[in-house]
Amino acid sequence: MTPPLDIHLIAIGGTGMAPLACLLREQGHLVRGSDGPLYPPMSTLLEQAGIVARVGYEPAHLDPAPDLVIVGNAIRHDNPQATTARELELEIMSMPQALTRFFLRDRQPLVVAGTHGKTTTTSMAAWVYKACDRDPGFLIGGVPQNLDRSFAIGSGRRFIIEGDEYNAAYFDRGPKFLHYQPQTAILTSVEYDHADLYAEPEDLLAAYSRLVAILPADGLLVAHGDSPDVRAVAALARCPVVYYGFEKSNDIRPLAFGHEGGGTYCRLPDAEVGEVELRLRTTGRHNLLNAMAVWVVARRDGIGAAVLAEAFSRFDGVRRRQEELGTAAGITVVDDFAHHPTAVGETLPALRERYPGRRLVVAFEPRSLTAGREMFFDAYVNAFASADAVFFAPLFHADRLSEGERLDLERLAGSLAECGVDAAAHSSVPELRQAVLAALDPGDVLVTMSSGSFEGIPHEILAELRRR
């Protein structure tokens, strides 16, 4: 057992930092921290754990001097507290370094990595292991619908962690997942993202290759075999590799699959029971893929097919992943995290299956530095072609992109119009909000898509519809 420490977290309100703070508190440490103004759900999480988060980065917040300072990856080298911590020669760690030191030793980490599907797949794994009485530890960068919270120490041998490819801290520029000492890894996808960190697609490919290379020879890699890039990365593994997907070349693929009763199902081959039916409350082929990956790991860990299938049937998904916020004035509002063209292209057909025969209206904010790049123009045309109407918010990081790099939203709207999609680009989020409200009719489904808060418009629009 680690002796209790006085630990200060800089940027304690981050989606990974706040759960880490709560885990440390449960382990018996004195935990404190600072950030900018905090909002739910992270502020609520910290309050419930009895953790004081001070507003601002004044050096005085480090008085008395803590035993350890954990620095979030949003913090720059010249942050006042970071500077003071160095001057005082305090021990400093990144979030993934701390997670490994305090929680992953003597466990068997299951790391879920990939451009898409990490949060849902990690949540799925945490839920089914918990439902099947394996009491896993876990830390998830989202809010699972089934679980009381997004973190747990657990007493089981597995610790399930979302393997983020983003950098760990200003002094630890490599991807977070390299710290997690995976015994088993799931690799869902390999596509170009995070252009602010990875100048070329090959750079991101190399990062995933490093993850695969650190898997032990007696470990396991479960990889999405429909992707040539995933296969190229997986070929570097020293451990056994199980490929999953829909194509015949995979080790596990559905014997049949489809959409039914607001969810999806598939029949999977199983070496022990011959064949099993897997039913999910979530929609879309991508969620079947996520389930297949978790199924492989869980069965290898000895969880019985019947109890496992029953646990999957009760998984309700993750907030902001096709999350239905409510229906008012005959209009259903769905909020989704999708910000990459591949994620958009998977989500919209899934919503078509979920809401058959209804007009699908999309409000999209290119929030990330990658999402606003012209290189994805053709991919966006294909991704949004399955919508009936699309409203584009301005590029969130337009000032950080050169004119040639910026996605031309006016041209994108024009190309979609040629495909029969009613599309328009707007100069501000408030302008988009008003245009969406004016365009919605009873029977419509509105899906808001952004990797950020989208200035609260999903909830604002629903509130306005309720006032009608």
Level-1 CATH class name of the largest domain: Alpha Beta
Let me know the CATH homologous superfamily of the largest domain. Mur-like, catalytic domain
> In terms of structural class, how would the helical and strand content be classed?
alpha/beta
Number of DSSP strands? Answer: 23
**Secondary structure tally, helices:** 14
Key structural traits:
six-stranded mixed beta sheet, seven-stranded mixed beta sheet, 23% strand, Rossmann fold, 468 residues, UDP-N-acetylmuramoyl-L-alanine:D-glutamate ligase, 3 domains, 14 helices, Protein-Tyrosine Phosphatase, Chain A
Brief digest:
The chain has 468 residues and is of the alpha/beta class.
Structure description:
The protein has 468 residues and is α/β, with parallel strands linked by helices. The protein has three domains: 6-95, 3-Layer(aba) Sandwich (Rossmann fold); 106-312, UDP-N-acetylmuramoyl-L-alanine:D-glutamate ligase (3-Layer(aba) Sandwich), CATH 3.40.1190.10; 323-467, Protein-Tyrosine Phosphatase, Chain A (Alpha-Beta Complex). The protein has 14 helices and 23 strands. The protein has helices at 17-26, 42-48, 80-87, 95-104, 118-131, 201-213, 228-234, 285-300, 305-312, 341-354, 377-384, 409-418, 429-439, 457-467; strands at residues 6-10, 30-35, 52-55, 68-71, 91-94, 108-113, 137-139, 151-152, 158-162, 167-169, 172-175, 184-187, 220-224, 241-244, 256-260, 263-270, 274-280, 323-328, 331-336, 360-364, 389-392, 422-425, 445-449. The protein has a seven-stranded mixed sheet, sandwiched between helices. The protein has a six-stranded mixed sheet with strand order 18-19-23-20-21-22, sandwiched between helices. The N and C termini lie far apart (58 Å). The model has no long low-confidence stretch (mean pLDDT 90).
